[in-house]
Amino acid sequence: MIQTFSDLRYKEVIDIHTGFRLGYICDAEFDDQKGQLCSLITPGRGKFFGLLGREDDFVLPWSCIVRVGSDIILVESPQPPRRRKPRNKWF
Do residues 56 and 83 lie in contact, with contact meaning Cβ atoms separated by under 8 Å? Predict the structure, then answer.
C-alpha cells in the first residue's frame, strides 16, 4: 500500500504499551544524505485550550513504528518518547 505524507497526517499515533494517544502526525524528519525517513513528529498538547501555547512535541524515531494501519499508527518505545520545543512557523 503506497501512501503520501498527507495521508499520514490524518492518522492518530498510539503507544501500544501505555495506550497513550500521542496525537496526529504534524511533521517528519528526513535524512537527505541516506535518503531515509528518520522520525515522525506529533505536536504537544495545548495548554489551557491552546491559549497559553502548547507542550513540547513528541519525536518518534522510525525504529519505534510497529504498524501503520488504515486509520492509526502504532508505536512501541521502551522509554517515553523524546520531546523537543515546537518550532516557530511564523516568517
Answer: yes
